[in-house]
Amino acid sequence: MRRFIRFSSSPIRYRVVAALFVVVFLSAISISYFTFKQFESSMIHQAVEHMADIRNNRIHDIRTSIQKSIRDNERFSTLPAVIKDLSNHNPAEYSETVSNSPIHNAIDQQGEYYDLHDLFIISTNGNIIHSMGNEVDARTNLLSGPYKETQLAKVFRQAMQMLQPQISTVAYYEPSSEAALFIATPVIHDNKILGVTAVQINWEELHDTLTSITGLGESGEVVAGILKQDKAYLAPLRHMPSAELDLEVTMGSSLAGPIQYALQGDVGSAFDKDYRDIDVAAAWGYIPELQMGIVVKMDTEELLEPVEQMKSITLIIVAGILLIAVFIAYLLARSITAPLARLTDSTLRYAEGDISVRSTFRSGDEIGQLATAFNVMADHLEEYNREIRTKNLALIKAGEVLEQKVCERTATLAAANEEIKSFAYIVSHDLRSPLVNMKGFTGELEYTLKEISELTERIEEKLEQRDRKTMHRLIQEDIPESFSFISTSVAKMDHMLTAILTLSRLGRRELHIESIDLKPLCDEILATLTHQIKQTGTTVELNTLPVIDNDRIVIEQIMNNLIGNAIKYLALDRAGNISINAESDDNGITINVTDNGRGISEEENDKVFQIFRRGKHQDVQGEGMGLAYVQTLARAQNGSITFESEENVGSTFSVFLPLNSNFSNKPEV
Fold first, then answer.
1. How many helices, marked H, and strands, marked E, lie in the chain?
2. Which residues contact 508 (CB under 8 A, 6 or more apart)?
3. Which of 108, 248, 378, 400 has its CA 20 to 30 A from that of 190?
4. Are 657 and 591 in contact (CB under 8 A)?
5. Could you give the dihedral angle defined by the CA atoms of residues 634, 635, 638 and 640, in that order, rounded to the nearest 10 degrees?
């Protein structure tokens, strides 16, 4: 973030160069990246398709050659000379010496014609009657002789059992000292099997087909593999020419994945590891006739070499584009910053106080418009400056007059405030004297009435019955009732005068700030109200209440009045529930007292804090001064009191008291 702020405050020429560099760089990199990826994808696709084509061609050539050899051997098995020779074969006269009979010459001619490595005529008991190659396997028995476990013996037995041509897998054949592949065809005449003709495919021809690396570059090769006992045997190997079905790979290992897929009968292409544990791109397939897998592959490094070359060329091109972009950005930035520097110099001189300076730059572009706007602004500011100086003088004079009036009004308000306080005191004090006199004379009259009552008892026998009743009513009922009204009114007036006097004195006491724990303070107040709480069945909940710095007497008066009011105005038809909590913030503390009492109707909302007002609940004792006291105490601290109420549901009174820092200029409450 700091680097960004530092960059945003650097000169414009640097930011323009940097911005254009970033835009060109990102554009060039993005275009190069997508072009490179497309080229890479195209190269890989073409290479994989090319290897897949080679794989298909190799498999087609091998299968075609195998099918041709099968057909040739089938034709050979039907030759009259072969049938005659097998029909005339007598095992008792069988000799291990190679015969030079005409059929042997026919075998030689047949092998040369079809380009075979060897061609055999085998009797039903396994004797090799004739062999074109005349190798060590000639004149041996395939059922009991030394080569009974070879692929030739196996394919002979299969042909005898299945009565149709059979193909062996590729395996090393000792008599030929090389890998060998055999095709055996049964010789059947007049629904009787006479023997088997077998051909040994010229391995050199298959080897040349497999080892051809035309179109596969320096690292490409074609690998064939056969499966024996969960192991793959590979051949031929370009990078290991001495291995001829000798290199084995355990199926399921991480090496030679493609040949493993091929031996499982799969056909596909992908990137994988070869038998050297090198990344290659490979296409593989399966030759079912030979139970052989074939893989055409090329090293990934060689395959992607053109891509790497293109990457280098692209980087050189991008670097050149960036150099050109930086040079263009420098010229562009210079064309912008040079006039801006001249305009900045004029602005700084103007800011230093030379209001007569004007920009001399002229141009039709935005900078020229900015210079013109600067000159217009400077002219207007100069004119405004003159007007301001003129008006400032007038304001100074008006301010002096206003200040004098404010001082006079402040003194008048202070005197009026003191007069109001004195008036409240005088009224409450001086009115109490007549009340005391009225209370005293009422007592004298009650004593006098008692004496009159005693005197009337002596003469009541002389009065008529009607006059006696009238006199009794006046003395014992009417006059005492009047005395009671007078006493009650005097007592009520005395309480009201006391409340007014108390209200007038609330703002005259010096504050004593101390730390106050609201919870113990509320517990003390609730203890004094235990009788009322039990009588009304009220539950009081004290929630989180903090420690505050304030005047203890002020807080006690506020909490006493709020809690007392909550208890007084509880509903008579349900158990009371009162909750007290406090909320603090950076400005101060708000104390909330919530009850489920009678509530306040909407038409009484504006009268709640008036003195001697108790709303329509006249059955509640008190003078109606509690909330007026709380409001006066809160306002004296620059605080406030508010409420929310719903009739027959309950009320919440909230007193906000500012932080004790507000007391610094308010030593008294």
1. 17, 20
2. 421, 668
3. 108
4. yes
5. 60
Q: Taken in order 481, 483, 486, 490, is the CA torsion positive or negative?
A: negative
The dihedrals phi and psi of 600, each to the nearest 5 degrees, come to -125, 130
Burial class (CB in 10 A: 0-12, 13-18, 19+), 55: buried
Give CA–CA dist 70/159, Å, rounded. Answer: 12
Structural contact between residues 292 and 168, judged by C-beta atoms closer than 8 angstroms: no
* Model confidence band, residue 668 (pLDDT cutoffs 50, 70, 90): very low
363-407 pLDDT, tens digit each: 767 777 777 887 788 788 778 878 888 888 888 888 888 888 878
For residues 285 and 293, the answer to whether their CB atoms sit within 8 Å is yes
Measured distance CA(184)–CA(575) in Å, rounded: 111
Over residues 176-195, mean pLDDT: 90
188-228: pLDDT as tens digits = 988 899 999 999 887 777 777 777 777 777 878 888 888 87
Task: Report the 3 state secondary structure along 409-454.
Answer: HHHHHHHHHHHHHHHHHHHHHHCHHHHHHHHHHHHHHHHHHHHHHH
> CA nearest 82: which of 115, 129, 114, 118?
129
Task: Write the class of the CATH domain 78-204.
Answer: alpha beta
- The correct CATH number of 510-663 out of 2.60.120.600, 1.10.1740.10, 3.40.50.2300, 3.30.565.10 is 3.30.565.10
Judged on CB neighbours under 10 Å (0-12, 13-18, 19+), 364 is exposed
Rg (CA), the chain: 62
For the stretch 101-120, pLDDT in tens is 445 555 555 545 456 788 99
Three-state SS sequence of 452-477: HHHHHHHHHHHCCHHHHHHHHHHHHH
Q: How far apart, in whole angstroms, are the C-alpha atoms of residue 322 and residue 524?
A: 83
Residue 469 has pLDDT above 90, yes or no: no
154-to-119, 160, 171 alpha-carbon distances in Å:
16, 10, 12
Whole-angstrom distance, CA of residue 141 vs CA of residue 96: 10
Residue 63 gets which letter from DSSP? H
pLDDT one-digit tens code per residue, 301-335: 887 778 777 778 888 887 888 788 777 877 777 77
pTM for the model stands at 0.45
